[in-house]
Design a protein that fits this description.
Structural class: alpha/beta
Bound molecules: NADP nicotinamide-adenine-dinucleotide phosphate
Helix content: 40-55%
Number of helices: 9
Distance between the termini: 45 Å
Largest sheet: 7 strands, parallel
Radius of gyration: 17 Å
Length: 245
C-alpha cells in the first residue's frame, strides 16, 4: 500500500489526484494552509474512495516548521512512500516586480518552501531506498517573460532543482517526476485569458497520474505545451524582449 503525502491538497488538481491515488488503495495525508478546507477535502476523498484520508496543515513559507511537519505526516501515515508537491501561488506579479518583499514571498511559496519540504522528504525516501516525488511545476518556468518572470523564475528554479534531485535519487531507487503544467481551470487562473488552451483539473490529474504510473521523468500537461514552449524558447532574445506576453 502506497502512503502518500499531498502538499497543496486543496488545489482542484491535487484533489483529483488524491482520488486517483485513493482509488488505487493509497493511504493519504492531505495538507494545505487552510485547515477547514483541507479537512473537507480529506472527508470528501474518504467518502468517494472508501478509504480513510488524513489531513493536516503546513505553510511553505514557515521553514522552521517543515521538519516537524514531515515527521508528523510520515508518522500519521505509518511511513512515507511518495510525495506530491502541488502548492504554489501566482502572487501579485505587478507588485512583485517592484517590491522585493513581495518578490521573495512569491519565491518562497513556489520555490524555497518546496526546496525545504522536498529535501526533508527526500532524505526519508533515500534512507528507505524507495518511493517517489511528483513535482508540479509550470510551463511559465521555461522562459522569463516580462509579464510573469517572478513567478516564472520560481517555477524554472523548481524544475532545475527537481532535475538534479532526480539524478541524485536514481541511485537509491527513488523516482522524481517533473510536471510542466500548462493552463488549468482553477482559482489561480480565474478570469485570465487563454481559455482555448485551458484544461479541467480532472483532465490534468488524469494525465499526471497516467504518467506517474509509467514512471515518466518530465512531462508536459497537456502534451502540446512541449511544442508551444519549444517555439517560445527558439525566439531570439532581441525579439523576445519586445513581445508583450
Ligand atoms: N492553474 C494553472 O493554470 C497552473 C498552471 C501551471 C502550474 N500550476 C501550478 O499547479 C499547482 C496548483 O495550483 P492550482 O492552479 O490548483 O491553484 P490553487 O487552486 O490556488 O491551489 C494552490 C494550492 O497551494 C496551496 N498553497 C498556496 N500557498 C501555500 C503556502 N504558502 N503554504 C502551503 N500551501 C500553499 C493552497 O493551499 P491553501 O488553499 O490552504 O492556501 C492550495 O492547496 C501550483 O503549484 C501552481 O503553480 C497551475
Amino acid at each position: 500500500m502506497n502512503r502518500v503525502l499531498i502538499l497543496g491538497a486543496t488545489s482542484p488538481i491535487a484533489r483529483a489526484l488524491a482520488l486517483r491515488f485513493a482509488g488505487d488503495g493509497a493511504r493519504l495525508y492531505l495538507a494545505a494552509r487552510n485547515a477547514d478546507e483541507v479537512r473537507r477535502v480529506a472527508e470528501d476523498v474518504s467518502v468517494r474512495a472508501g478509504v480513510p484520508a488524513l489531513s493536516g496543515t503546513f505553510d511553505a513559507s514557515d521553514f522552521a516548521s517543515h521538519d516537524e511537519f514531515i515527521r508528523r505526516a510520515a508518522g500519521a501515515l505509518g511511513g512515507l512512500d511518495g510525495v506530491v508537491l502541488c502548492f504554489g501561488t501566482l502572487g501579485d506579479e505587478d507588485v512583485a516586480q517592484t517590491d522585493p518583499a513581495a518578490a521573495l514571498d512569491t519565491l518562497h511559496q513556489n520555490f524555497t518552501g518546496a526546496v525545504s519540504l522536498i529535501t526533508l522528504a527526500a532524505r526519508h525516501l533515500e534512507q528507505q531506498r524507495s518511493g517517489f516525488i511528483i513535482v508540479i511545476g509550470s510551463v511559465a518556468g521555461e522562459r522569463g517573460r516580462k509579464r510573469n518572470y517572478v513567478y516564472g523564475s520560481a517555477k524554472g528554479a523548481l524544475a532545475l532543482f527537481a532535475q538534479g534531485l532526480r539524478g541524485r535519487l536514481a541511485a537509491s531507487g527513488v523516482h522524481v517526476m517533473t510536471v510542466k503544467l500548462g493552463t488549468v481551470d482553477t482559482r489561480m487562473t480565474w478570469g485570465r485569458e487563454g481559455a482555448l488552451l485551458t484544461i479541467a483539473p480532472t483532465k490534468a490529474a488524469d494525465l499526471i497520474y497516467a504518467a506517474y504510473r509509467k514512471r515518466a521523468e518530465v512531462i508536459y500537461v497537456p502534451w502540446f505545451w512541449r511544442f508551444i514552449m519549444g517555439a517560445v524558447r527558439s525566439i531570439p532574445e532581441s525579439r523576445f524582449k519586445r513581445l508583450n506576453f
